[in-house]
What does this fold into?
Amino acid sequence: MTGTSTTSGPSDTNAATGTSTTNSAPGASGTGGPAGVAGASGASDTSAVGGSGVVVLRPVTAGDLDLFEGEFATQDGTGVFQWFGFTPAHRLRARHEQDGLLSPDGGVLTVTVAGAVAGRVEWFASAWGRPDTSTCWTLAIGLFPAARGRGTGTLAQRLLARYLFAHTRAERLQAWTDQANLAEQRALHRAGFTREGVLRSAQWRGGRWHDQVLYSLLRTDLPPGD
It folds into this structure.
C-alpha cells in the first residue's frame, strides 16, 4: 500500500495507498497464495474504474523499470514511510530479465491509471510456521507522488487481492504499514482488510525503530460471488 511503509518485498518497496507501501507476512508460493478484495467493477481481476480513470494491473515492462528508478530514487519519490536509503537498481532489472518479475514465490505488477503508469504492486511469500503448511502472501504497493491521494492505492490493492485469490490457492493475504501512516491504513480498510494489531518496533528506518500495524484479508472475507 502506498504512501505507507513496509518492509522490503521483491523490489524493496512497500505499499500503502497513494504513497508508499505496506508489507504483509506469510505468503504462499506456487500452489497457495494470498487473498484479495473484491474489485470495484466488472468481472476482470486486473482492472477497475476509479475516480481518476480505469486502474489496471499488468506485467512490468523494461520501460516501466526506467520510470520506477526515476520516481522512487529519493525520499520525495517514495514518501517518508518508504524511504530506506539508496538501493541498487540492477537487482530488479536482473530479475526482470530472468522471469519478468513473475514467479511462484511472488511478483510485481505495474499499476496504470487511464493508461499512464502510476506505480507498482507486489507480493511475496511469508510464513507463520512451517513454509510447507503455513504460508500466505504479503502485499506491498508503491505509487508515484502524482498518483497518491486519489483512491488509486485502494483499488490497486483490491485488484491485487482479487487477482491472487483467483490464480493462487492462498487463504490469507496480509500487509503492514507504519503506525503513523494513516492514509495507508484507510486504504487497506477500504480495500477490505482487517486490522489485526501492532507489531512493536518491527521496522528500522530513519535512524530508529518504528511500530507497524498489521492487516489481513482472508478468502472467506470476500463478498459472495466476487
User: Anything to note?
Assistant: The helical segments are 62-71, 75-78, 90-99, 152-167, 182-190.
